[in-house]
Design a protein that fits this description.
By secondary structure, the protein is α/β, with parallel strands linked by helices. The chain has three domains: about 5-230, TIM Barrel; about 235-335 and about 470-500, Leucine Dehydrogenase, chain A, domain 1 (Rossmann fold), CATH 3.40.50.10860; about 340-465, 3-Layer(aba) Sandwich (Rossmann fold). Helix content is about 35%, strand content about 20%. The protein has 17 helices and 20 strands. Strand 19, helix 15 (about 450-455) and strand 20 form a beta-alpha-beta unit. Helix 1 packs parallel to helix 2, helix 9 (about 250-260) packs across helix 16 and helix 12 crosses helix 13. It is elongated, with a radius of gyration of 27 Å. About 50% of the residues are buried. The chain binds NADP nicotinamide-adenine-dinucleotide phosphate.
């Protein structure tokens, strides 16, 4: 058993607010799901608020929880403006209020005589914290924390500029005891989620406002990623992209894993440089990943083998990591377009216009052409339109002809109208001379384009249907099982509706 317990006890809910009443509200919220709680006393806006909050805490005596008091000074990256004496005063007050642990930053610790803290009435267990908000420094192979020595545990929180930085910090966790690893920043997020699995005593997650960059909210840490139950047997998957924070793929895939009781997790990897991620695949034990912008084409040269169709499309959105570490790529956007459209239109013999000539337009064009449709391309770059039309045996349609030409289906494969630009449409009502309009955009679920089409009495297909279908196909490729489609669909639709 670890220093803080097992399972959910190792996820530390961070409670941080400027007022005592908001702090107490957050404690009550945290206690619904967490058993270990950090109290950021330095966030409270005045001594009066600190006093009020600690009085409240003392009266409650939450016996089943472990509280860790932090009153970090500005010098150590916190918000407390007082000196060390005042800091220790508040940490000692926190002990009186029932806190069993305190977090003392290195900037304070090194100013104190050796052994001073053990003799001072701070909470009996001390976590020494070291922060670097700018980079991940050189790290030793392991950290030795002698139990009942000067401190009980050591935490290193360091900004990960690269995925390799976050891997270095996780390796220290793997080789140390009584150690807490906190990779900071958006690039470090997957490592944060895997820290417990690598042996970190704690993973931090805020109840409300983030207190450090790249944090995952408490409910997501516990319910979406189940960070407390990941272990060495967990199969790790993910999505790589830049940006990637908006992606609903973690929700889609993790819902599937939970519904099928699989020991697997799907994480979002913010990847600036593809090589940085590829090197980390063995360290994280990644079995497969989805690819979004801007890496869909660049991944091709790193694959040992590629599904011929994906090679023809020139874009891969799904990678399987084989046992020998080699990469196999395929494209499920193709299946996604087909499954989404086939329900409403017999593709064989139809005439479809694709607006745009980028990665998803290519997947759509190949899918429709293979299904027997005549494919027309309209894009702002003439060369791109011509090249794609030639590749699928289709034709180029100039924009001005859209008012007179008619089609069975029109597909938008540009990002125009995507969140947060919901008010705009790539095409006007007069340009929609067709029976069906499909928007590949899935956020929002109902775009301006689809609204305009519906108003004209044209049938519509949301990009959500494609997103779901391409995701189900990925899930099945990786797991070899049937995807629990209903549960996955419900989770994504409710998240989309809740966000809009
Ligand atoms: P992409 O490779 O960057 O291609 C975007 C295309 O849109 C290019 O042809 C681009 O033209 C064109 N474009 C961009 N801004 C434009 C503008 N203001 N006016 C005219 N044309 C413009 O992107 P992608 O991967 O194909 O993605 C396109 C959209 O599809 C995104 O919204 C994405 O979220 C969505 N998508 C959805 C799914 C799904 O599962 N539902 C899957 C994949 C993609 P230039 O080349 O001239 O820039």
């Amino acid at each position: 058993m670890g220093l803080f317990g097992v399972g959910v006890q190792r996820v530390c809910a961070v409670v941080a607010a400027t007022t005592a009443s908001e702090m107490s509200r957050q404690v009550r919220t945290a206690l619904r799901s967490a058993r270990t709680i950090e109290l950021r006393l330095d966030w409270l806006r005045s001594d009066a608020e600190r006093l009020r909050f600690l009085r409240w805490l003392r009266k409650r005596r939450h016996a089943s929880a472990t509280f860790l008091a932090t009153c970090r000074r500005k010098e150590g990256g916190g918000r407390f403006a007082g000196d060390i004496a005042r800091q220790l005063h508040w940490v000692a007050q926190a002990r009186e209020a029932g806190c069993q642990w305190c977090d003392i930053e290195m900037e304070t610790f090194r100013e104190l005589p050796e052994g001073f803290l053990r003799a001072y009435p701070v909470p009996p267990r001390i976590l020494l914290s070291i922060h670097d908000f700018d980079r991940t420094p050189n790290l030793p192979r392991n950290i030795v924390v002698a139990r009942h020595g000067l401190v009980d545990a050591v935490k290193i929180a360091a900004h990960a500029r690269t995925i390799a930085d976050s891997v270095r910090l996780l390796k220290v966790a793997r080789h140390s005891r009584n150690f807490v690893a906190v990779p900071l920043g958006d690039v470090g997020l997957p490592a944060r989620l895997l820290a417990l699995r690598e042996g970190s005593e704690l993973a931090y997650a805020p109840v409300a406002e983030a207190t450090a960059p790249g944090q995952v909210p408490l409910d997501e840490m516990l319910q979406l990623y189940r960070a407390h139950s990941l272990n060495r047997g967990t199969h790790v998957y993910g999505v790589i992209g830049d940006p990637v924070g908006h992606s609903l793929s973690p929700l889609l895939h993790n819902t599937g894993f939970t519904a099928r009781h699989l020991n697997a997790a799907y994480l979002p990897f913010l990847v600036h440089r593809l090589g940085d991620f590829l090197k980390a695949i063995p360290d994280f034990g990644i079995r497969g990943f989805s690819i979004t912008l801007p890496h869909k084409q660049a991944i091709l040269k790193h694959l040992k083998e590629c599904e011929p169709l994906a090679a023809e499309i020139g874009a891969v959105n799904t990678v399987v990591v084989r046992r020998d570490g080699s990469l196999y790529g395929c494209n499920t956007d193709y299946v996604g377009v087909l499954r989404a459209l086939q329900r409403k239109l017999r593709l064989q013999g139809s005439r479809a216009l694709i607006f745009g000539a980028g990665g998803s337009a290519r997947a759509a064009a190949f899918a429709l052409a293979r299904a027997g449709a005549t494919v027309c391309i309209c894009a702002r770059r003439e060369n791109a339109s011509k090249e794609l039309a030639r590749a699928v045996g289709g034709e180029v349609i100039p924009r001005r002809a859209l008012r007179t030409e008619s089609f069975d289906a029109i597909l938008n494969a540009t990002p125009i109208g995507m969140h947060p630009h919901e008010a705009i449409s790539p095409l006007s009502a007069g340009e929609l001379q067709c029976r069906i309009v499909m928007d590949l955009i899935y956020r929002p679920e109902r775009t301006k384009l689809l609204e305009i089409a519906a108003r004209k009495g044209i049938a519509t297909v949301s990009g959500v249907n494609m997103f779901l279908a391409q995701g189900f196909a990925q899930w099945e490729i990786w797991t070899g099982k049937r995807a629990p489609e209903a549960a996955m669909r419900r989770a994504v639709l409710s998240a989309l509706r809740w966000r809009s």
